[in-house]
Amino acid sequence: MNENQPVPVPHPARLNPKKNDYSLILKVHQDACRAGDDTYKDPSTGYSVFTAFYHLKRGSCCNSGCRHCPWVKN
């Protein structure tokens, strides 16, 4: 992803917009995508999370309920 491409926002079922650290998660995710990283460290849990960049590179949904899956339907 480059600076001009919008970074997809997670589906609300995967990341609740009311979550206290929602904005921070979006910022960390955006930075990771812009850097071309496959993962980032969740600021609350420390867990490794796949980026939308990784999922788009992968090319399909793995049906694991990933936070940044770009193929989630409403």
Annotate the secondary structure layout.
Elements: H1 22-35, E1 39-41, E2 48-50, H2 52-58
Antiparallel strand pairs: 1-2
Describe the protein.
The protein is built from two helices and two strands, in the order αββα. With 74 residues, it is of the alpha+beta class. The protein has a two-stranded antiparallel sheet. The protein is globular, with a radius of gyration of 11 Å. The chain starts with 21 loop residues before the first helix and ends in a 16-residue tail after the last helix. The relative contact order is 0.22.
Short description:
28% of the residues lie in helices and 8% in strands.
Class from helix and strand fractions: alpha+beta
- The residue fraction in helices comes out at 25-40%
Distance between the termini: 24 Å
Write down the overall geometry.
globular
Q: How much of the sequence is in beta strands?
A: 5-15%
Number of spatially distinct domains: 1
- Strand-and-helix sequence, N→C? HEEH
Mean pLDDT: 91
Instruction: Tell me the number of strands.
Output: 2
User: If strands are numbered along the chain, what order do they take across the biggest sheet?
Assistant: 1-2
Largest sheet: 2 strands, antiparallel
Number of helices: 2
